[in-house]
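=== RUN LOG ===
request id: a7f3
mode: sequence -> structure
chains: 1
length: 305
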Amino acid sequence: MKKVFITGASGCVGHYLFDLLAQDPQYYLYLLVRNPNKLKFNPQLFPKVEIIQDDLKNIKNYQKLLSEIEYLIHLAADWGGHEGNYDYSLALFESLNPEHLQKVIYFSTASILDAYGKPLPEAEMYGTNYIQSKYRFYQKLPELKIFPKVITLFPTWVLGGDQLHPYSHALQGILELRPWFWLIRFFTAEAHFHFIHAQDLASITKHLLENETTEKNFILGNPAVSASQFIREVCHFYRLKVYFQIPITPSLIRTLAFLLRKKLHPWDLYCLKRKNFTYPVVDASTFGINSRFKTIEEILQALSI
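=== RESULT ===
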């Protein structure tokens, strides 16, 4: 039986991944969970699932177990800090036994890459704590003994969640903006970006867990959409007609921030300058996986929100 250690199982992607792996008899799952109350499933119903209630900062307490682990899926993210994405992640990776370990699937973020899929120096210069720490850890990876066994995933904008799965941060943002789409529909911005559904991320992760690949880095996302297209699809779903769209320029955003006495983070200013966050992405179809979530409207329809 294959022993799989998973961090971040209480998150959006983690729940979808659990659905796929918990039903597969070849896996025994160890889930590192800080707060089991966030789980939308009952782990006691799964005899081959073991909950480890603890924080990633205490990962060194589990060195014996980790030395016996064959597969690691590192989903956990420290959204506001630095330690979880770098220090504690480093301690986790260094606790693995290179001779016993078969594979690591590590979730980074596409935000640390440039348009060609290469590390973006500005991510370290201007990024938030989350982005800076993700960038630094990715740069650190080649120095680790287990590096040859690491597959790094760079998700773009992650959407997903429903009654059985927690909402992703991006989808939660859409929900919070829903009362304002009657106004947002009249504006747009010069920007392009990718998105991908958490279900697709989970399916791709399971595929990579079970199949060998010579490629070690995958930027995951559907084909890029414009900000205008995104707004129009959301409004169409909510039955809001878009008669016209007024472009919002970076200079206007900076002016509004000044008038409202809101200080923009250096990363915000960089994003206003860069505008387009597009990459050489792959999606579920690249791995022979069918997806029901190829458009924003399809995602909203499936979520019934």
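=== NOTES ===
DSSP finds twelve helices and 13 strands in the chain.
Residues 198-210 form the longest helix (13 residues).
=== END ===
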